[in-house]
Hints:
Elements: E1 4-7, H1 13-31, H2 48-51, E2 55-62, E3 65-73, E4 84-91, H3 100-111, E5 114-121, H4 125-138, E6 142-151, E7 154-165, H5 167-174
Parallel strand pairs: 4-5
Antiparallel strand pairs: 1-2, 2-3, 3-4, 5-7, 6-7
Amino acid sequence: xxxxxxxxxxxxxxxxxxxxxxxxxxxxxxxxxxxxxxxxxxxxxxxxxxxxxxxxxxxxxxxxxxxxxxxxxxxxxxxxxxxxxxxxxxxxxxxxxxxxxxxxxxxxxxxxxxxxxxxxxxxxxxxxxxxxxxxxxxxxxxxxxxxxxxxxxxxxxxxxxxxxxxxxxxxxxxx
Length: 175
């Protein structure tokens, strides 16, 4: 399967906001967050993703169907000595295991080469496995750091990976 990415803008923000709530639902297994009084997950304002030019939000599509999203940030929204961070990556369950997420990430890496950081909940073994496998195919050095974050009074263990993506590392994986 070959995925494509399409930029999220103010004109197509509603589907993004709807998908983001599904993402929060799924992430709640790791974040331990609860739904709000309206029966949905209370989101922080995500409008900067489609308004701030230093943020790069994309829908992931397959066969012209919206199947997820990938959200990339750049300074000042990333740590020092980092150019980009894949902040969020979500693919609907029906489309997982078919390289759609990998295709989308590789397209991002082609568009934005540089020093990356990705973070995830340590208990989200699917995410840890996905990123570990993907980064290993790039044949780049990676530093891994353990951390923690507090969400709604819960201290949760995280894992962060830092690595550099170049045109050469992308070329090597595709040949």
